[in-house]
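Integrase catalytic domain-containing protein, pasting as requested.
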Amino acid sequence: MGWKKTLAKTLRKYYWPSVHSDIRKWCEACLTCQMRRNPKPNFRERLIPVHSEAVFAKVGLDLCGPLKTTERGNKYILNIVCWFTRYVISTRCLTHRPRAAHRKCTEIWHDDRISLRPSLQLHEFCNLLHIRHRFATPYHSMGNGATERTFSTFQAMLSKFINLKQEDWDLFVPCVTFCYNTSINEAIGESPYFLMFGRDPVFTIDRILQPQSRPQIPGPSGTDEYKAQLVSALRLAWQQHGSIV
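Structure tokens follow.
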């Protein structure tokens, strides 16, 4: 994810005097990370941000593949991205027409005609739930940029864990998705996980360093207070990053 996002995730709960330099040196010393980086800067016209008014009001969908067929028969990755929070729901698919795409309720559904080919079932699904199905320009990644961008990140991260035959990539998709959702998104200044759930996740390192700590679970008498705190935290987070995604 890069040294800046690694640093931001570390500083949420931990600090030591040389944390900035230590994190940067540690990331820059990783040979695999340096081999996957794109050293060429991209000079392009500034993108026009897309406005989204609520969580999952607008979503982008896209397929990545076909990839190397795994032992479980998976060949594609389907990413569903909430444009408000940038939260990613990722699933592994056997074909280019996954049924998982037909189970998401939203207001606007944005994809290209190449990845998810229109079908009568999809058309009836959108009409039934009053979903506006919009199409991006085929073979033009900028038309669905928020979703397309997730694949370049996923591919860079997966390449560091898969075997030489590239037949086990589907085992790491859930881990990569969790890492992506819990990292600070530079465009919105917060992690998609926090904007979705109103709290920071509990990482494995937290359980190792603080084994006695337990997540605060409200009892029957504390449900209303927990709800009020959650709504307040989400409202503040949404106001800080605005509705521009």
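Note for the archive: The longest helix spans residues 223-241.
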